[in-house]
Amino acid sequence: MLLPGSRTRVSGNVTRTLRVSVATVAAALAVTAALAGCGSDDKTSSTTTSAGTTTTSQDRAAAPAPTKEQLQALLTKFADPSVPAAEKTKLVVDGEKRTTLIDTMNKGLANYTVTFTVGEITADGADKATAKVAVASPHGTMPDVPMAFQYSGGEWKLSDAGACTILGMARAACQP
After folding, report:
1. Strand, helix or coil at 55?
2. Which of 32, 55, 115, 127 has the fewest C-beta atoms under 10 angstroms from its C-beta?
3. Long-range contacts made by residues 146-151, C-beta under 8 angstroms, separation at least 24?
């Protein structure tokens, strides 16, 4: 940890050496992270998701931008207590791992109305997006809640993090 200059007595040469060392370490970490993210340059390489579907990098690049209406309909259906948990799992990337929590949310929302208003949508790469969402309940409105979405299986879905945001509001919080 670096302490304020008034409490640390270090010669000018040692301070410069320390700054150069920190900069060198930072640069090495950046290069390592960049190299770790590099993969095949083959634009048609494929990957298999946990659901067993195969997608290509070209498919991900072709993901249509989500509309406010699409995301709002998705959120409304996810929070609708009359929609069975098994059906809601299809609205979430890897949603089957959240079935029990979704069922808990359904029970908690049985006589409780929650509405969503999707605002600004920001693309986070070819297959991810974040939207600012106003969440309204009988207790008031929470504006600009960041909600994460992912394009998967040919449609926009809640990312696991996005689902966990809603589940947490419904007192069915996700565990790490």
Report:
1. strand
2. 32
3. 147/71, 147/75, 147/118, 148/124, 149/66, 149/71, 149/74, 150/93, 151/60, 151/63, 151/64, 151/66, 151/126, 151/127
Q: What was the pLDDT predicted at 33? A: 31
CATH number given to 59-169: 3.10.450
Phi-psi region of 35 (alpha: psi -120 to 50; beta: other; left: phi over 0): alpha
- Residue-level pLDDT at 175: 86
Question: Which mean pLDDT values do the consecutive 10-residue runs of the chain (176 residues) have?
Answer: 37 36 31 32 40 43 87 96 96 96 93 93 92 94 96 96 93 87
Sheet (strand 115-123) strand order: 115-123, 128-137, 140-152, 155-158
Give, in degrees to the nearest 5, the angle at Cα 37 between 35 and 42: 100
Q: What is the pLDDT of residue 10?
A: 41
**Alpha-carbon torsion (156, 53, 102, 81), positive or negative:** positive
| Residue-level pLDDT at 62 | 67
Beta bridge partners of 128: 150
Residue 123's contacts (CB-CB under 8 Å, 6 or more residues apart) are 65, 129
